[in-house]
């Protein structure tokens, strides 16, 4: 069963103003957890987390080579 109601934004604001503080908090929690933007953000965070989990990791030897290269570049710049 599906019900469709056509109300204007001002009417929605009026309805929200009539809610008790507890009811308003329920609506607020619902909107914050179910908004499309929030769901997109969660999806983006999950994708980023997966990328980071599967990303390559540098070995200590590779880190040492990078540090040595940086040191040589810094010396070269000072010349």
UniProtKB/TrEMBL annotation:
This is Uncharacterized protein.
């Amino acid at each position: 069963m599906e019900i469709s109601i056509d109300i204007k934004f001002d009417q929605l604001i009026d309805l929200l103003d009539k809610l008790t503080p507890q009811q308003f908090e329920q609506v607020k929690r619902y909107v914050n957890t179910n908004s499309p933007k929030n769901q997109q953000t969660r999806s983006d965070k999950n994708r980023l987390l997966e990328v980071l989990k599967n990303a390559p990791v540098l070995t200590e030897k590779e880190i040492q080579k990078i540090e040595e290269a940086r040191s040589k570049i810094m010396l070269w710049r000072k010349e």
